[in-house]
């Protein structure tokens, strides 16, 4: 593994928001640099060293992240700071499938550690640990805390959240509360000018509209699931063949039940803003992919094929199955959901293709796309 480790965190003891980019132990130089490319792409992220398929290119925690409002309403419990699931794996599948007596074997593989869970004493918002609670408080929650355990529907933040919820039925692709967190982060900074500077890279000069654009165009989707994490852990157990087969069929059956009950809605979902990831442009033939191996909002960018120094790090903003569709379909989806015309190498190479959309693709395009 090679790569740079990036973390943005609020330092309560010094002058404000710190972004750290540090080398990991196996390298002397960071793996990436931000360069200005020119119009229409703007800036992009470029490799400064050889990376092999599977390598970690960089790892970073978000500047801010936030669970989607509807996702929280439907009972997907997540840490209010890092989005780590707060439900146990068994509790999670029981709630989603409606099967109250479903029992998950190997309970020691459940990732949820209830003993570390805590809440804001003033408003009851839940965190996976006192570390997350304290980080949230010193970064933005001192400003945003509703300071009451009972809901005041007239509070401006409640009203903003409600208005947003009814403008964006699930599945959501952005959260308005992330903007409130950006503003509160700047307001709580010991040095508000530097904090504002940190977010200014995304802000265009026309007020709220540009704030919404900030989240829509730069927000990275984050999904966490205690059941998926349990599956990952039990799959690593060294088991006798027959026990392994039994476990695999059990897991398949639970996924079938989940699919029947909630379709694709397995995860606690939200969006997050990252310093480096947000500099990654889209490609319909990406060479990197963002992953969330810790089941929280910590992002690990991995190479999906070998990358040479000077190559741009390109991720896909589209679901994998869409990447095989025609240039016309991909461009239409990107224009409608991300408001830009794609100039990735694959689209440029297919520029001469006819603007044809098959019947299947038209059907697909009718569905709500997106989800960077
Ligand atoms: C997450 S930002 C990526 C960084 C951006 N290039 C910048 O300068 O800040 C997404 C924006 O980059 C641009 N972009 C990303 N991929 C592109 C592509 N394949 N073709 C053209 N523009 C692209 C679009 O303006 C898009 O809204």
TrEMBL record:
GO biological process: methylation; negative regulation of gene expression, epigenetic
Pfam families in the cross-refs: SET
Family annotation (InterPro entries): SET_dom, SET_dom_sf
Domain SET: 30-318
Gene Ontology MF annotations: histone H4K20 methyltransferase activity
Keyword Transferase: yes
Keywords of this entry: Methyltransferase, S-adenosyl-L-methionine, Transferase
Full protein name: SET domain-containing protein
